[in-house]
From TrEMBL:
Protein name: tRNA-2-methylthio-N(6)-dimethylallyladenosine synthase
Keyword Iron-sulfur included in the entry's annotation: yes
E.C. code: 2.8.4.3
Family indicated by similarity: Belongs to the methylthiotransferase family. MiaB subfamily.
Cofactor(s) of this protein: [4Fe-4S] cluster
Organism: Eubacterium ruminantium
Source species taxonomy: Bacteria, Bacillati, Bacillota, Clostridia, Eubacteriales
Every TRAM domain range: 426-492
């Protein structure tokens, strides 16, 4: 059994023993789980439902698509957090408020679980890679049924089978990946027409504030063959937009997970090459990528974007802070001047690009002067969107041990930054007013059912009159009204 998809899950009777090797082992457990679910549904006389709740970034969301793939392949019906029997929280731990959010949700589920005997609660994701958190959950949330981590998403069916077989809490968090099982997992996409493709896992950068390298492990790249094949498979399944995912896509190529003919023939193969190759896949109309670390965004990448209209006109380029002193303390490995030079180069080669960024306020030791350097960058660059965060102390990271900036000072700076960001973004986004742009329609507008919502190549959101039949289609829209971060338009 190589590749599993929604059509070829074997019957459990096809197995005479439990396979020890993957992916056959998970095929066995998925088949067993399917049978278990069937029996329970017959017993209670209604379908069992599931919900996977994503708390984190695109990578986390992509893992959720795999979890949903497993649950739907084994016969469950999708539902929502309020009504589902099987609820899985895919957690994030990048900031402390992400952790608090989980505990809030768990508190509410406890009462529900008392009323619903079929309820199973699962926790996974980055937060579970921290042993102290797992201990806390074992201790304080005994009603949680299964706990697993970022390296064993592929084991969901096995863990559920274990839970059903003895009724005990199952905790299994791997410390590192055993192998790349990405190619062998079913997947249920949030949008049928677009999805993410992991090109690499982990991070080697160790920015001093960041927990990600501690919970996602060292950088490992998938071989290009696998990535391109996955893009081809998606394209055959009506996907037209893919997003290549990694914590720092520009360093793609470090530590390949398997032997690769392509790499043997071209040892210098890098992210721009990969981007170009994914663009060649028939049926793929748009390629995005996330995230680019400014320290190694190459001229070659800018050229590949420029020469390939399929690459979306959007670069997310997190700066984090504008002060060179703070950037150094953060271990970001670029200066404000390097960054601004890079922005100039990008704007010159890609005049229609939109730039977005992440900024943190209140990093340990940040002074008013340091902060003003950050505001200055926002002024100079003219971002289309800025994701602003208050620095959050993550235990185990170096910056957590350093002297912290008082909360009231941080809050005041944060508000000042927000004001600057929204002024500048509104000016910047407005530049496309009255132009006609291709929009990929994603959804019916959540506020008005006569409107739909879509995205331009540069990631700007557009709302316009239309019906649900347009979802997944590319249409030309004239941008008539500019609303800060988005546009109202008319289909032409
Ligand atoms: N790999 C990406 C970032 C992933 S985390 C990069 O290097 O750009 C997403 C964002 O969360 C970061 O860009 C940063 O702005 C923010 N972040 C990370 N750790 C944080 C912390 N401890 N406190 C507040 N924000 C943090
Ligand atoms: Fe975190 Fe830095 Fe790695 Fe991004 S590059 S995930 S901010 S350590
Ligand atoms: Fe959060 Fe993990 Fe992503 S910590 S931001 S879900 S990599």
């Amino acid at each position: 059994m190589d590749i599993l998809d929604n059509s070829n899950l074997p019957d459990i009777s096809a197995f005479s023993f439990i396979p020890t090797d993957e992916p056959a082992r998970q095929s066995y457990y998925m088949a067993l789980l399917k049978k278990t679910f069937e029996e329970r549904q017959n017993l209670i006389g209604r379908p069992l439902t599931y919900a996977v709740i994503t708390f984190g970034c695109q990578m986390n969301a992509h893992d959720s698509e795999k979890l949903e793939g497993i649950l739907s392949l084994t016969g469950l019906t999708a539902s929502d957090e309020d009504t589902a029997d099987i609820v899985i929280y895919n957690t994030c731990t990048v900031r402390e408020n992400a952790n608090q959010k989980l505990y809030g949700h768990l508190g509410q589920l406890k009462a529900k679980k008392k009323k619903n005997q079929e309820m199973i609660i699962g926790l996974c994701g980055c937060m579970m890679q921290q042993p102290d958190i797992v201990d806390y959950i074992r201790d304080k949330f005994k009603f949680v049924d299964i706990v697993f981590g970022t390296f064993n998403v592929f084991m969901l069916a096995e863990l559920l089978c274990r839970r059903y077989s003895d009724g005990k809490q199952v905790i299994e968090v791997l410390k590192e990946p055993i192998k790349n099982f990405e190619n062998n997992l079913p997947e249920k996409r949030k949008y049928p027409f677009k999805t993410g493709i992991n090109i690499m896992y982990g991070c080697n950068n160790f920015c001093t504030y960041c927990i990600v390298p501690h919970v996602r492990g060292r950088e490992r790249s998938r071989i290009p063959e696998d990535i391109i094949e996955e893009a081809e498979r998606f394209a055959k399944d009506d996907v037209t937009e893919v997003m290549l995912l990694g914590q720092n896509v520009n360093s793609y190529g470090v530590n390949y997970m398997e032997d690769s003919e392509m790499i043997k023939n071209n040892p210098d193969y890098d992210f721009p090459d990969l981007l170009r190759d994914v663009c060649k896949v028939d049926g793929i109309r748009r390629v995005r990528f996330m995230t680019s670390h400014p320290k190694d965004l190459s001229d070659k990448l800018i050229e590949v974007i420029r020469d390939n209209p399929k690459v979306c006109r959007h670069i997310h380029l997190p700066i984090q802070a504008g002060s060179n002193r703070i950037l150094k303390l953060m271990n970001r490995k670029y200066t404000k001047e390097d960054y601004l030079l890079l922005v100039d180069k990008i704007k010159k080669e890609l005049p229609d690009v939109s730039l977005t960024t992440d900024i943190m306020v209140g990093f340990p030791g940040e002074t008013e002067e340091d902060f003003l350097e950050t505001v200055d960058v926002v002024d100079k660059v003219g971002y289309d969107q800025v994701f602003t965060f208050i620095y959050s102390r993550r235990s185990g990271t170096p910056a957590a041990e350093w002297e912290q900036v008082p909360e009231d000072v941080v809050k005041e700076r944060f508000n000042r930054l927000l004001k600057k960001v929204s002024e500048r973004a509104a000016e910047r986004v407005g530049r496309f007013k009255n132009t006609i742009n291709e929009v990929l329609v994603e959804d019916v507008d959540s506020h008005d059912e006569n409107m739909v919502t879509g995205r331009m190549s540069n990631n700007t959101i557009v709302h316009f009159k239309g019906c649900k039949d347009l979802i997944g289609k590319y249409v030309n829209v004239k941008l008539t009204e500019e609303k800060g971060f988005y546009y109202i338009g008319e289909m032409v």
